[in-house]
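Malonyl-[acyl-carrier protein] O-methyltransferase: C-alpha cells wanted.
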Amino acid sequence: MPIVLIHGWGNDSHCWQPLLPGLLQLGPVIAVDLPGFGESQPLPVFNESTLLDALADILPDQCVLLGWSLGGMLALALAERFPRRVQQLITLAANLKFVADECWPQAMAPAVNHAFNEAFAASPDSTRKRFTSLIVQGDEQERALLKTLRQQAPASMAPGVGEQALALLASLDNRETFAHLVVPGLHILAEQDALVPAAVAPQMQALNASQQVMVIDGAAHALTWSCPKTLLQHLQRFLPAVPAVPAVPAVPGAAARSKQRIANAFSRAAGSYDSVATLQRDVADALLATLPSVDRATLLDLGCGTGYCLPALQRHANNSRLLAADLALGMLQFARQQRAVDADWVVADAENLPFADQSIDLVVSSLALQWCEQPQQLFNELRRVLPVGGRLHFSTLGPATLKELRAAWASVDDYVHVNDFSDEALLRTALQQAGFVIDNWTTDIRTLWYGSVVELSRGLKALGAHNSNPGQSPGLTGRQSLRQLEAAYDIFRSDNLLPATYEVFYISAIAAN
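Answer:
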C-alpha cells in the first residue's frame, strides 16, 4: 500500500531522505511537496481548506499517511476527512494544537509563536537558520545534526508561502478531530522537542485511547534525522511490510556505482532534461509502439524520469492502474507536476523493488535500466513482481554507446570517464536465468552530432548522465586535459561536426514458469 509523506514547515520532501531506504521496504512511497514548497506550485489561496483539497487530489484510493510536524497535523485532518482512503495514520512531532491556550497548555506559548512569526516576516533567512537550530535543540546528537542540516540546501518557498503556512500552523486545532478519529494511528513525539512538548502525550492519549501515542527518548523535533533507525523499528511494528526479497550476491569485481549519486544527478537535471532529450524521446516512442494492448492491469513505468511515457501509457491501457517509479525523487516531483496522469508515484530502486510478488502485469522502462550495475539481480526482481505471462518491455544502452568519447579520453589518461554498459550476451543470459523468455530483440545505432566537445558535455550534464563508475579522476579536469581531449576527439569530425554514437537495445520478454 502506498505510503504518502507530508513534510513540515520550512522543509520539503527531501526531509524524508534518511527514512526512504527503510520505508521502501514497507511499501511504495509518495513524497509530497506542499503547495509553494520545494518543486510544488503555490495555491492562489493558501488556507486549511484549499490545502487539504490539494492534498486530497493526489491521495491514492488507499494509502498510509505519514506526516511530520505541520505535515502531521494536515495528515490527521485528511485521515478524519477520508477514513476509507487513509488506512493508517502516522504523525511525527505533531501537536493537536500548536499554540497553547488555557485548555491545552502543553504547546508553544502564544508570545513565543508570535515573536517567531514576526521575525520570519522581517528576516526570513536568519529566522530559518534559527529554525534549523530549534528542530535539533536538546537532541543527544545536537551538534552533529546541526552541522548536517546546515550543509543541506534550504528548501525553496514561494514568496509569501512561509508566512501563510506559519499563520495556518498557529490556527490549526485538531483536538476534536483526534478525539473522534477511527483510522488506526501511531503518534510519535520526541522527548527533547523544543517546539512540540513531549508532555502532551498523556493529553493526547486521554482524548482517544484507541490511538497509539509514544515518546522517543533523547530525540528532538527533527525525528527523521535524529533517529531514523529507531523510527523505522516502530513503523515496521505498526505497518504491514512488503515481503522481503532475498539478496542476490554482487558479482565479484563488479563496478559499484553510487546509486545516491546517480539519483542526485538526475534530480538536479529534472528541469533541464526535456530540453536536450531528443534521443530519449525518439527511443521512448519506438518502445511504446511495441507494447501489447492491456485491460484492467497494473502497469509500471520503471525509471519514469520526467514522465514522458506516462500519458501514452495511460491512453494505451484501458481501466488500468499506473505506477510511476524512479530512483530520483526530483524526477518524480517534476513528472507529477508536469504530466496530467492518474498515477501512483514511487521512489524505487529497480534492483530492490518495493512491490509484492506477482503484483505487476506489465513493466515498461525506457533508457533507465542501464544504470543498474547487477543485471542478474535486476531481472530477478522484475521476474519476482511479474506473474507467469507478465511482460517486460524495455530499452537500454549497449557498450558501443559514446565510443568516440571513450576512445578520445583513452588517449588522454587512464581514468574512467565514460559509463560502461552491459553487452547483449550478458543481458540475454541474465534474462534467461531469471526466468524470462525473450520474444524480441532489436539493436539500433543512433548518432547525434555536436559542434564541439563542450557542447556534447553540456548535453550530457543537462541529462544528468554523469560518469558514475569507480576509477574516475579524483579531481577536476584541467585545461590541458580538455585541450588534449578536444584534439583526440577531432579525428572523428565529419562535415565539421563531432559524432556521438548510441547503441540502443529494444527488448521484450515474457515471464515464464
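Residues 259-399+420-446+504-511 form a domain with the Rossmann fold fold (CATH 3.40.50.150). Residues 290 and 393 are 8 Å apart (CA to CA).

Cheers.
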